[in-house]
Write a structure and sequence with these properties.
Elements: H1 4-10, H2 33-69, H3 91-102, H4 115-130, E1 133-136, E2 141-143, H5 146-156, H6 163-166, H7 191-213
Antiparallel strand pairs: 1-2
Length: about 210
């Protein structure tokens, strides 16, 4: 250990960089635990003060909430739902809930991923595309099936634009419309609809096979 005389020689700041003997390969002076003890004590005091401050702030906030909302009652006390256990399955209650959901104002949440809605939309579109229907009965306007419309276009051709209109100069940025073949024949069925059709055909084949076997 260094003697008091050595401390006096080097001063309060210890030896300078050139006065340290590095030939031994290790630190020759002892570690001063005073700084470590002071640091740990300061850290404990800081943690204690922070804990007291946060506890006091929580008490003040809860006191103000109780003054504004009133004290907790049996209606506001948190219930441990684990003690209730799993509720039993009740078909009558489920049926009642299904009836109530149908009375909710629109728009309602979908009960599936929307495939059935798309299929229903395509069925309504098929009714318009594949059957005759009135557009305006007072004016005698009728909607014809798309197959019949395609036959009429194949027989008569598309309406021809008058020559006067064809020869008119186009405005800046405009261009003449060009019809590309083949024309679209409508929407494409979704995968859900294709699966429904395949299942329906398989069921009909099974019925026919059963009837033929009998």
């Amino acid at each position: 250990m260094p003697t008091p005389n050595e401390h006096d020689q080097h001063g309060s700041h210890g030896p300078g960089p050139g006065e340290v003997d590095t030939s031994l390969g290790f630190e020759q002076s002892d570690v001063r635990i005073t700084g470590i003890v002071v640091f740990l004590a300061s850290l404990m005091i800081f943690v204690g003060v922070c804990g007291v401050l946060t506890w006091g702030m929580g008490k003040l906030i809860n006191a103000r909430l109780n003054r504004e909302d009133g004290p907790n009652t049996k209606w506001t006390t948190t219930v441990n739902v684990r003690e209730l256990g799993n509720l039993p399955n009740n078909p009558e209650l489920q049926h009642k809930m299904a009836e109530l959901t149908q009375q909710f104002p629109t728009p309602r949440l979908q009960t599936d991923d929307g495939n059935q809605d798309v299929a229903d939309l395509h069925q309504r579109e098929d009714l318009l595309l594949d059957h005759y229907s009135w557009i305006d009965q007072s004016q005698g306007k009728v909607r014809i099936p798309i197959e019949r419309a395609m036959e009429l276009i194949a027989e008569r051709g598309l309406p021809v634009v008058p020559a006067s209109t064809q020869n008119e100069a186009l405005m800046t940025g405009d261009k003449r419309p060009v019809i590309s073949n083949p024309l679209t024949d409508g929407f494409a069925p979704t995968a859900y609809e294709q699966d429904e059709v395949a299942a329906r055909m398989a069921e009909e084949k099974q019925k026919m096979a059963t009837a033929g076997g009998q």
